[in-house]
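Lab notebook page, bench 4
Experiment: in silico fold of construct C2
Operator: M.H.
Input chain length: 465 residues
Purpose: comparison with the prior construct
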Amino acid sequence: MFQQRLKFFRSILYLGDLALVGLAWFGAYFLRFYLPILPVTKGIPPLSLYIMLFLLVLADFAVVLPLSGLYRRPWAGTGHSLWPVLRGVLIGVVVAVTLTWFLRPYDFSRLVFLHFFVLLSLGLLLFRPVLRHYWRCAYPENAGERVLIVGSAELAAQVAENIKKNPVLGLSLVGFLARDEKKVGSQVAGLTVLGSFAQVADIVAQQHIQVVIIALPLGAHESLPAILEGLSEELVDVRIVPDLYRFMSLGSTVESFEGMPIIGLRGSRLEGWPRVLKRVIDVVGSLLFVMIFSPLMAVIAIGVKLSSPGPVLYRQKRMGLDGVKFEMYKFRTMRVGAEAETGPVWAKPDDPRRTRLGAILRRTSLDELPQFFNVLSGEMSLVGPRPERPELITEFRSQIPGYMLRHMVKAGITGWAQINGWRGNTDLAKRIEHDLYYIENWSLLFDIKIILLTPFRGLINPHAY
């Protein structure tokens, strides 16, 4: 019920957005050539030419709008949807303008694209409150389906709060049932406990309940058969929320396998096509970076060789995807045998183990350039949590809850934690928090955003020493 209704709302919003793409496109055409702000100097092009381009524009926005995050919380207010709308329209227009380059010798007006950007942005921003208004008329929150929650503990309260956050569901919360009769009449999440589990059939009839949500803690599941028996002759929609949300972490899912419901408590979003696309970007991006930086890498290699005795490259064991160890490449920045006395430790300010050139390379992150070859070999990715040394992981995993979850994706050259300043000898908990946020919210656009921000916020850092 919940997912179906939310999907229905999203689908209406998506189809409406695509309709607005068409209206804005042809509106921009008529504004430019029939109500021009600037004079038309090259004549009015045929409408058929812009109809042809519209097919590409429509396909462009059909992909870009969902990827821009417009439908993650589509019922949110205008303040929350302003940036996703502007970002989505801007990306879509940039892609559309790029596509016109392949349609030469046709010459398309850039002012049409400017009008299109303004009209579509305004249309998408105005469409959302209008749709929410009519949706509330069709599914009024206070007069919608009446909901009774069986349970009164933390899980039941969380269910109630989540329903309140999603007004598009059109559900009207009536109250709770408690296992302990002493709780009857008390308040949970602003609603009254109407009775005990044994009274479920009577209360459903008295309160004209249409939906019963059973949200019991694990210790109360022995009451479930009696509750279902009490509902056996009632014409109500019965839903069960398992008390597993406390154990759900990254990539939790609920799916059906051969008719059997399976709840995934932990998993990766990088499966199937997302994994293939990320690998394609890794390979193409790494080849491009290697071609661009190969002269610089050659100069650095010569400098390392001439500045101090020892190998040019430094190979160090790191832990990557699924906890598998691999050799990560870096330009050598420290004296040979630098850890003979200290053992595996992080670098520190004015670290005496560094060479003179090594200090510069570490400060500018140029020592990391050989890791593009780790990416090409499939051991790393362009974007992901930075790989750590196995010796340090043994210590960290006992100190930081959920530390090992960062190994559910490939380690990266750059990452969400790094561009937010959490690199080197900084707060480990904050770094893990950012790594897990990246894994939970991964998307190709998120990867591209991190790559684009890295030159400005990731290369030179006060903690890179």
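Observations: The radius of gyration is 29 Å. The chain has three domains: 2-138, 145-247, 273-457.
Next step: discuss at group meeting.
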